[in-house]
Every structure is written in structure tokens, then in C-alpha cells.
Amino acid sequence: MKNxxxxxxKFLSAMVMPNIGAFIAWGFITALFIxxxxxxxxxxxxxxxxxxxxxxxxxxAYTGGKLVxxxxxxxxGAIAVMGVVVGAPDYPMLxxxxxxxxxxxxxxxxxxxxxxxxxxxxxxxxxNNFSVGIxxxxxxxxxxxxxxxxxxxxxxxxxxGVNVLVSHSLLPLxxxxxxxxxxxxxxxxxxxxxxxxxxxxxxxxxxxxxxxxLEANPGPGLGVLLAYWLFxxxxxxxxxxxxxxxxxxxxxxHEIYFPYVLMNPTVIIAPIVGNICAIFFFSMTKAGLxxxxxxxxxxxxxxxxxKGSGMIITIAGVAIATVVSFLxxxxxxxxxxxxxxxxxxxxxxxxxxxxxGQAPAxxxxxxxxxxxxxxxxxxxxxxxxxxxxxxxxxxxxxxGLGITVKNTSVxxxxxxxxxxxxxxxxxxxxxKCCPSARIVEIGNFLADxxxxxxxxxxxxxxxxxxxxxxxxxxxxxxxxxxxxxxKAGIKAGLASVDKWTAIKEAGTLLHKLxxxxxxxxxxxxxxxxLASVYMGMGVAIPHGTTDxxxxxxxxxxxxxxxPEGVDFGGDEPANLVVGIAGxxxxxxxxxxxxxxxxxxxxxxxxxxxxxxxxxxxxxxx
Length: 621
Fold this sequence. Notes:
This protein is α/β, with parallel strands linked by helices and about 625 residues long. It is about 60% helix and about 10% strand.
């Protein structure tokens, strides 16, 4: 349930986050050039309404459509949302865009699946273009007559509800839900999926909105971090707090303080009460911002403050939240005893394992496998993971290992990830997204025992010694898992095709050999749409989604060799397409065995071009 909520929230924010620059541009133009702005300009203020009513909804709908249906989904999403925009001219249709974009992407995706293999030769471009145009027109008409008026009614109700809360001084109670939801990594979903839609409507009417200030206020988190800095009895936690303060308050990455709350859940009272006080103050002073603050930095907060006393009020509200949060958190932190951040993480992991009837997880060990890519992943892939990747990249730079360190969202981990570093709360999603990667669970990107262990192993490699660590049970299971392959499942010297055809050919062969039901073939294509199955080194490993496990009859693999390559969107074409079906967790064991084999560069290069099935069979068996 938790993962489902996080994924839904992530999807909502994923439609808005790539377009935050456009929201900020609109916010600056509003703050500067409207009649009450810093430098009023009647002609330039004419940009405000078209950007709000047309540009922003189209960008959001395009992004939402692309997330579901690729490039064609983006185009049809932009077409469809115009019906909503024109059908509800009195309201900014951001909520309508969040609905129409994904719906349009879903419609064109289903159309493409239905037409797959049924298009007459030579008519592909004609059918593709007309399908987007005709279906987009139909959706735009539906949006004009149905979705636009419906979204208008919903906005009227939501706005009225907010006005009632404000008029009765009840809006501060929203902090009771906001702060706990934030530390469960739903902050982006709350801010961009809900508040931004309501706030833009209020800005259009009043020139500012308090809704922009509810979630993004850095004050509550700053108070918690100050309390740990001054009063934490654990030296490691105490020493990590100043760096976290800078990143949180100036960088706007709120995720940095979440582990400090999670390690001592009682502390959540502090940011809740701090935010309640701040929202009450903002309500009393009729404060508001002219645009969204992303990231939630004090710099962004001040930049989006309206002309006049707005900046002073903003600073005062942030200060109130900080002081109240600090005063409440301080005695809680003092009374927390000597429990450290690392101990809290270990206790959480042990409790989680015990709840599942498992033994506590073994300490992180990297083993002797090759490590070329380390990915730091957080929920949105734009905040704490970027910070963590930058910090760790600088930390290992002098080791000279040639390791790539990047960041991404947890649901978009690259298939060729060697090590994925994620917060413990997101580990399950990371494992599902990239089952071949080793997962390093952490609670704090600044000071974490598992990150230190990872660095220590890499340092040993740089010094020329191979770590001699006992493999964790999961690793042993991977090494012992046998791969089911026969020569009938190997096809060499195939002509180059597009990736969808290659995936379909692999799935068809799996079905023909009795490994899977026919429905598994479509699930393989769905898996590619969720995240690329290209592993790197000229290898792609298409397999079904988690939901398709019931269509797998027995574990097995097929190997399709394309000497001229198949473009999977990686750095190089895939010469080997290895279709996989696994029963239960055997799916992960097969992936692990294949990855181990492909670490032998010389063998892999031979497999890309050899004309003999026997050579491929002998390498994989």
C-alpha cells in the first residue's frame, strides 16, 4: 500500500517537476510586471494569462502523455488538453492537464498495441499520423464538453473549501497531515500534485497564494536540524547536522532532514507544531507567494514573495516555524539517549525483517564483481539523490577507479546499474526496478555506515587488494541458481530490427518452448516501457513485469543474437537480446548469473558475432 501511494504520488509530481522552470518563469513574470509587481509593465504583464492558461497546462499534459505513451503520447496529450483549456476558460486547467495527459497517452498506447503487426506495409506513417490526429480530436472534444466543466466544478469546490478553512482559521491544521506525509517521501506529490493546482487559480484571482507556502516552508525542518546539531548526544549525528542544514535551508532539499525524524519518530511533533504556527501567521497577515518554490529553499521563498512587505512577512513566517520547531525538538533530542543515526537505521531494518519473518539483513558487502556504475536514487530523482551522488562522486574521485556515479528517480534505475544507493523506505521499489543491481540501503546521504562500508570496499580495490567478504545469502542463491537453456532457444545471425520487434521475438520463442503463456509477450513490452531493459555492454535482457509472473510456467531463457545490433536507446546497440522467464525469485537468480557471465569482456565480444549456436550455448549453460 505504501509503495502504491508513493508511486502514484511520484507519477503526479513527475508531470510537474520537469516543467518547474516554466512555472518559475511564469512566477517571475507575475512578480515583476503585473500592476502591483516590482517593476510594473503593462505590455509584459500580458504574458501572465497566456502562460498560466495555455502554456503550463499544455506542458504538463504533454509530459503526462509522454510518461504513459512515449513521444506519441506527449503529442496527443497536448492536443487533448486544449479541449479542456478552451472548455473551461475561467480557470487554469492544471488538474485537467494531469488527467487528460495520461489518459491520452494510455489511449494511443493501446491503439499502437492493437495495430502492432497489422499495419499494411508502406502505410505506417500515414496510420501513425492520422491516429494521433483523429484520436486527439476526439479526446479534445470530450475534454471540451465533459472534462473542462467537470474540472471547473472541482476547482470551485476545492477553492471554496480552502476559503472556508482560511476564514475559520483552520488552514494551519493542514500541517498535521503535511509533515508526516513529507517524511514518507510524499512531499513532491503534495506540493506539485495538489497545492500547485489550487494555488495557480488563486494567483490568477488575487496575485498570490498561501498554498505555495504550506509544504515548501524550510523553517520546520531547519528547527529539527538545529536541535540535533546543538543537543544530539551522538557525535556522528551531531557532526552531520551542519552540512544538512546548509543543504536543506539554502539548497532546498527537504529530504535531508527526513532521516533525523525517522530515527526518533517523536520528533515529528516539532515540525508539525512549527508549521501550524507559521501557517497561522501567514493566514493572519494574508501572506502568499506569486509562484511555486521548487526546491523549497529560503532563496526560492524570498524570490517568489510579492512586492512590499511580502518579503518581510515571508522571513518572519519561516523564522516562527524554525523557532517553534527548534524549541519542541530540543528536549526530545536531549532525552533520546545515545542512540545514533546508524543504530536507528539498523533497528529499523531489523524490525522490518522480523515483520516479514526473515533474518536481519547482512551488512553491505560489494564482493569481487566489477563496479562501473553507482546510481543514487530518491523518489523524484532531482533532490537528495543528486546531492548524494555529487558528494560520493567527489569522495571517490581520488581513488582512480573510473566509476560512474549518477542520480535518478527510484523507478527509473538504469538496467546496467551495478550498485543502487537508496533510502531504506524506497528499497523495495529499487529492487523491483533493477533486480540485477546490488542495493545499498541508507538513511542519511551525509553520514551513513553503509555508505562508509561501500567507500571502504572501493578503497581496498584502489589499493590493489580484493575484498574477501563472505557472500550474503541472497548472493549465494544467485550463484547457485541454474539457468534453463537449450539449443532450440538460441538464434544466431538475425537481421537487425527495432527493439519492440526484438522483444516480441524473444517472447514468442519463450512461449513456443513452453516457458510462458502468450500473455507474457505483452508484459515484456510493458516492462520495457517502464524502464529500459538494456544492460549495457551490448546486451538487453527483456522480461515481463511483476504482474505477469502468473503467466510463467517454468524458468528459462532464450538468446537472440543480432550482429548488427538493436537500438534499445543505450550508448551502443544490443547485439545479444536475452529473453528471461523466472518462477518466483528464480527470475533474479537468472539475471545474476547472466550479469556474472557478461563481466568476461572477451567472452561477451565473441558472443556478439559468433555464427555457431554451440558456442553461445556452451557460454551460457
